Amino acid sequence: MRNGERILIVGAGLSGAVIGRALAQEGWRVEIVDARAHVAGNCHTERDAATSVMVHVYGPHIFHTDDAEIWAYVNGFATFLPYKNRVKTTSGGQVYSLPVNLHTINQFFGKCFRPDEARAFVDGLADRTIADPRTFEEQALRFVGRDLYEAFFKGYTQKQWGCDPAELPASILKRLPVRFNYEDNYFFHRYQGMPEHGYTAMVERILDHPNIRVTLETRFRREETDGFAHIFHSGPLDGYFDYELGRLGYRTLDFERFTHDGDYQGCAVMNYGDASVPYTRITEHKHFSPWETHEGSVCYREFPRACEPGDIPYYPVRLVKEKAQLADYARRAEREKGVTFVGRLGTYRYLDMDVTIREALDTARLFMERRAAGAAMPAFIKSPL
Ligand SMILES: Cc1cc2nc3c(=O)[nH]c(=O)nc-3n(C[C@H](O)[C@H](O)[C@H](O)COP(=O)(O)OP(=O)(O)OC[C@H]3O[C@@H](n4cnc5c(N)ncnc54)[C@H](O)[C@@H]3O)c2cc1C
Predict the structure, then answer these.
(1) Catalytic position from the list 331, 350, 365, 369
(2) Model confidence over 144-187: pLDDT tens digits?
(3) Which of 82-86, 220-224, 261-265, 327-331 has the lowest mean pLDDT?
(4) How far is the centre of ligand 1, averaged over its atoms, from the C-alpha of 15 (Å)?
(5) If DSSP codes are grouped into helix, strand and coil, which group holds residue 10?
(6) Are strands 250-261 and 212-215 parallel, antiparallel or unpaired?
(7) Which atom of ligand 1 is nearest the CA belonging to 65?
(8) What's residue 215's pLDDT?
(9) How far are the Cα atoms of 5, 79, 181, 254 from residue 122, in angstroms, in the given order?
(10) Strand locations in the chain (E)
(11) Measured between alpha carbons, how far is 5 from 338 in angstroms, rounded to an integer?
(12) In Å, how far are 12, 278, 307, 330, 331 from 324, measured between CA atoms?
């Protein structure tokens, strides 16, 4: 047990809360600061005052994992109720099922294919002249051919990343993005669910420990770090260094909120595949809590764009230019003493919640092992590159 030694954690999102809890339980005094007025970071949920709908304030969050330890961990702090993510898309004036599956293919081509017939049909559409796909577009054309690509991938990707899919690397589309059955559950993971009272209530419980003190609406300042045995930084990596090597590129999201009496779209997430529609999707939040009943409804139209100073960074861009810059920041971070960079912003990676919690628990374990052995803690527990 470590009585008296203080740890500073920047950010009260899942990374900060999980590391803080693990260290607090071992007797460390944990101080957490967050610039925002609430805990839970980007997973923050709050009830809308007028409709009492639970709103996913920074965009929809569905918990899914294959990691039994992480599933047990989150269930220790919240009751998870069953939730399956079933996404629809509006394209060319029709509504289809996503991910592209047998229903989507049959509807799109006006067919009644069985799985093998659909597979052979799509195989016939695929552009096999592309032997070595270098771009997202070439990869998609090689997998599914032009019609499916243009209806379900091109416009959405263009809006999401703000550039032509012919300029994005093929690696973004790793496997065949089509299912030859009627499975429309978006995720394959063994465990899926939604916390009954939202993610913020869960994070508040993780933080509820006598050795943890959380200070909100407080921005971390590098000059005020004296007296801490170690710092875990879950804020932006480039922000820690005052952007001295430039800004790492992110996509941000603008949410246009609107309300509706009754049921607006009949599902939680409706994508819009056409490039002519300026938003990528509409989220109707009450459908994330199917065990609740609400007359009113709260919806978000989602508009991605390039992140500017002052915007919330959402998705790391991680193309060639950003990776080179990231390598410079990683080298800079490795020279910094007493700081470990964690989480989606600290390591400039897209991380699902379960991966975030897994890495946070591993970080706390490694820290305690290293301290016990008198060894230094690395800047990253996993290379961000
Ligand atoms: C649109 C969107 C949808 C997503 N949907 C899913 C999903 O469906 N399922 C899933 O598993 N994952 C999803 N994720 C991923 C999920 O949001 C992350 O796994 C999670 O937020 C990571 O937690 P974190 O603590 O690392 O970062 P964050 O949640 O970003 O927390 C970092 C905290 O640090 C604070 N901070 C930053 N800089 C400073 C500073 N200088 N001083 C003080 N405080 C600071 C911030 O205010 C923030 O509260 C989604 C992500 C996005 C962007």
Answers:
(1) 350
(2) 999 999 999 999 999 999 999 999 999 888 887 899 999 999 99
(3) 220-224
(4) 8
(5) strand
(6) unpaired
(7) 11
(8) 98
(9) 61, 42, 13, 36
(10) 6-10, 29-33, 45-47, 54-56, 63-65, 80-81, 88-91, 94-97, 191-195, 212-215, 230-233, 250-261, 269-272, 281-284, 296-306, 315-316, 339-341
(11) 14
(12) 29, 31, 19, 10, 11
The predicted structure's pLDDT at residue 222: 86
Alpha carbon of 289 to those of 47, 191, 296: distances in Å?
12, 17, 14
Ligand 1 contacts (CB < 6 A) are 10-16, 33-36, 41-43, 59-63, 219-220, 234-236, 239, 314-315, 343-345, 351-354, 356
pLDDT tens per residue across span 265-321: 999 999 999 999 999 999 999 999 999 999 999 999 999 999 999 999 999 998 888
Encode pLDDT of 315-351 as tens digits: 999 888 899 999 999 999 999 999 999 999 999 999 9
Among 42, 86, 240, name the best residue to mutate to test ligand 1's pocket (greatest count of ligand atoms within 8 A of Cβ). Answer: 42
Q: Which atom of ligand 1 is nearest to the CA of 240?
A: 41
Residues 9-20, mean pLDDT to the nearest whole number: 98
The overall longest dimension of the chain from CA atoms, in Å, is 69
Asked about 221 being catalytic, the answer comes back as no
Q: How far is the CA of 106 from the centre of ligand 1 (A)?
A: 38
Nearest residue to 315 (alpha-carbon basis) of 33, 139, 138, 59? 59
**How confident is residue 2, by pLDDT bands cut at 50, 70 and 90?**
low
Give the pair of three-digit tokens for residue 160: 């999401």
Q: Which residues pair with 266 in a beta bridge?
A: none
Contact criterion met (CB below 8 Å) for 148 and 122 = yes
**Annotated catalytic residue, options 142, 179, 318, 349:** 179
Q: Which residue(s) pair with 296 in the sheet?
A: 261
Catalytic-residue membership of 302: yes
Share of the chain above pLDDT 70, in %: 99
Clarify whether 308 is annotated catalytic: no
CB-based contact 280:271 (threshold 8 Å): yes
Cα separation, 292 vs 62, whole angstroms: 16
Say which of 251, 301, 332, 370 is annotated catalytic: 251
d(CA 16, CA 220): 13
